Amino acid sequence: MSQLQGEIIAAGAASSNLGNYEEACSQFHWEDVEKQFTWYETGKVNMAYEAIDRHVDEGRGGRIALLYQDGDGRQESYTFEELQEKSNQFANVLRSKGISKGNRVFVFMPRSPELYICLLGILKIGAIAGPLFEAFMETAVKDRLEDSGAVALVTTTALLPRVRRDELPLLQYVFVVGDNVQKEEGILDYHSEMNQASTNAEIEWVNREDGLILHYTSGSTGKPKGIYHVHNAMLQHYYTGKVVLDLKQDDVYWCTADPGWVTGTSYGIFAPWLHGVTNVVRGGRFSPGDWYDTIQRYAVTVWYSAPTAFRMLMGAGEDIVREYDLSSLRHVLSVGEALNPEVVRWGHKTYGHRIHDTWWMTETGGQLICNYPSLPIKPGSMGKPVPGIQAAIIDDNGKVLPPNRMGNLAIRTPWPSMMRLVWNNAPKFEEYFRIPGWYISGDTAYMDEDGYFWFQGRIDDVINSSGERVGPFEVESKLVEHPAVAEAGVIGKPDPVRGEVIKAFISLREGYHPTEELKAEISRFVKEGLSAHAAPREIEFKDKLPKTRSGKIMRRVLKAWELNLPAGDLSTIED
Ligand code: WTA
């Protein structure tokens, strides 16, 4: 199927936590993972306890948990004990407002120590955390807070204007991190609330199946879906942290993802702290020099990033790599979109490290198909299923296909970190499980004779731009709010650095003329109303868009236009 299949980069000699892959798979029992947690003995469950407090109780409280640095010169470090105290304080702040178990509490702010402290505090009272990416604008913020029924939000002075409090009757409290917080009903000054709160707090013990976090993510139709995860997910986070991230006690670990996306929580908070390792968080924007400097400055050993970032680093060249000491690195991983073989080869040559691809989704809560330190890598392949996970390629009727046949990438249900609900949307949830016994990912792939999985694409129209999932419907809905836009169809257009960029096909209303200024204005309209990463980078005006007889815009035809491909079956087209 692919000429790439023959290429192999051998496993390194270094010992890894996984050991022999086949042996690990055949001897695997989730119960052995459960034994790693205190609740296996005590019956008392809480993710925040296992991630933070436990290390203090077991004498590791003085270790550095968080090393934070941003582009504005803020640089701080926190031990596990300090994080315990601060998150206790925030738990007490929330409790003092009557907020309790099961309530949804959102955080909408750039990466900062406060973001991590608040998230842990939310979990400590058994509330459900909802992280929002800082680039979200008014509509995106409102849709998510409204759908989830959030009662409280933590944000910053700069982001507060994007919160339409008058349209969110359930949102009672907004904690604002910043100076000179305005005095208004329902607005609370985070720092003065924290200063009044005790550093001791009782943890709310929950059930393994109680809510942990809601991550909103895009599909091809409808508004973003609230993917609901429970505390039980910690089994997957812990186990993959051990065998995929290969975390060891003294590691300094850096995950470059923002907690607004699932990678930034499952692997930017939970997995590293369940292992008690030092977690590096770098705020601010991407720049090759700053990134290499982060690795050098903190002597990062395990680095988890994304194809877009690696492609940009590749674009920055090899000379800049030599200006930094990256010799601390031991293990490098990637997630979010297909990792090009070229990038794997470049990383191997330039960093002297194999970049280990990992496949998973917001809905899966944790890594499922991965490359491991102790296994050879086939550049271009996502690797093999995590021990304990059964993956297969199945056809639309649920028949498992033999090797080298392309089909639906599916996972045997259940596994510990599988989503438990789509918030407020049972039909959407059920769509993923329409074939009994399987979770249907929406990705297509094939498996080769050696059991390696190869990503082929999406079944639906979901766009993956720089590793961020963008739903075309959300962008189209925003576009048609613009007075000039009659109709809009949005597709992902292949791009060498970003994977895909967003391209919009637009038909204009009477009286509007197709100009470059109008294109720029429409793009800005989406950027300011929805979010920067959802704004079309390219706009093409058309007199008419291809539609089905029932009036649905046929994105498949738009894509075929764009790529100069045959448009396929047009029997349902309008005219
Ligand atoms: C894509 C991110 C190819 C895929 C954790 C999936 C990938 C979607 C890979 C999930 C990979 C993720 N190779 N494609 N290694 N990892 N994807 O929910 O299409 O933001 O369905 O989760 O990203 O994106 P999400």
UniProtKB/TrEMBL annotation:
Coiled coil: none annotated. Its EC number is 6.2.1.1. Keywords: Acetylation, ATP-binding, Ligase, Nucleotide-binding. InterPro entries: AMP-bd_C (IPR025110), AMP-binding_CS (IPR020845), AMP-dep_synth/lig_dom (IPR000873). One of its GO terms (molecular function) is acetate-CoA ligase activity. It is an enzyme of class 6 (ligase). Pfam families: AMP-binding, AMP-binding_C. Residues 58-420 form the AMP-dependent synthetase/ligase domain. Residues 474-552 form the AMP-binding enzyme C-terminal domain. This is Acetate--CoA ligase. It comes from Paenibacillus brevis. The gene is acsA.
